[in-house]
Specification:
Strand order of the largest sheet: 2-1-3-4-11-10-9-6-7
Number of strands: 11
Structural class: alpha/beta
Order of helices and strands: HEHEHEHEHEHEHEEEEEH
CATH architecture: 3-Layer(aba) Sandwich
CATH topology: Rossmann fold
CATH superfamily: Class I glutamine amidotransferase (GATase) domain
Number of helices: 8
Largest sheet: 9 strands, mixed
Shape: globular
CATH class: Alpha Beta
Distance between the termini: 42 Å
Number of domains: 1
Strand content: 15-25%
């Protein structure tokens, strides 16, 4: 009987321990790609990460619950941003497909992240719309306004090019390199940097490739024009950003939850 009681006690303790085990951070992505690139990229850094795409969620209660549980938010790549959002509606003639629903969704996510100091990462379109949300503007078409030949996109397909990291930037402290090859696919770019932001990296043609807060002590915000989730994960400009973002998400979870 004593042995049976001991076994039951051990089993009960194991069950309670399992119930109390903290799950990994919840990362919201504004819209996942069909190949689940962000799921794979984040989970390659921590298999316990929970990744949820909120694109298309119409249930307001579900959205509020997810936002409340979020430990990090990533604004991902995709369609052109409506230029009316940065007071240049006439430039829509240089845009491709416009998705007003997505613009609204991502502006809401950015505002929520900033108001609640949730770690915020912007990738490609995400880099651009975070800049717009903070009062910045965009170069609506690089081939038209900067130069005809572009290193940033090869006839609508992704390409590789070098970027230079400002050695005095917060980004440099994350990646520990002053340059590297990145994957990009875009025809728009940051023009005027938004309020409270500063440029942290540039392409050889002077296009801004990354932005960060002027005051990096208040909240983790990083925006990248390139696609770290679409590169080899062992590349310094991919894994270091992933790992640092995950650390910040875990810190937020520990501090707030």
């Amino acid at each position: 009987m004593k042995k049976l009681n001991l076994v039951l006690f051990i089993l009960l303790g194991t069950f309670l321990l399992a119930c109390n085990t903290q799950k990994g951070p919840l990362i919201i992505v504004s819209k996942e790609y069909p190949n689940m690139a962000f799921h794979r990229w984040l989970k390659s850094g921590d298999k316990d990460i929970h990744v949820v795409s909120v694109y298309g969620i119409q249930d307001k209660d579900k959205m509020r619950k997810l936002l409340k549980e979020a430990d990090g938010i990533i604004i991902t790549g995709g369609e052109d941003i409506n230029p009316a959002l940065y007071n240049e509606p006439q430039e829509i003639k240089h845009c491709g497909k416009i998705n007003n629903y997505r613009d609204s969704l991502e502006l809401m996510l950015i505002k929520y992240a900033i108001n609640n100091k949730i770690p915020l990462l912007g990738i490609c379109r995400g880099h651009q719309i975070i800049n717009v949300a903070l009062g910045g503007s965009l170069i609506v078409d690089i081939p038209t306004y900067i130069h005809g030949d572009t290193i940033h996109r090869n006839h609508g397909h992704a390409t590789m090019h070098e970027v230079y990291i400002n050695p005095h930037s917060y980004l440099f402290n994350i990646v520990k390199v002053d340059s590297g090859m990145v994957r990009s696919n875009h025809h728009q770019a940051v023009k005027h940097v938004g309020k409270s932001l500063r440029a942290a990296a540039y392409a050889p043609d002077s296009i801004i490739e990354a932005c960060e807060p002027i005051d990096t002590t208040k909240q983790f915000i990083l925006t990248l024009q390139w696609h770290p989730e679409g590169m080899q994960y062992k590349a310094p400009l991919s894994y270091s950003i992933r790992d640092f973002f995950i650390v910040k998400a875990k810190e937020y979870k520990a501090r707030v939850k």
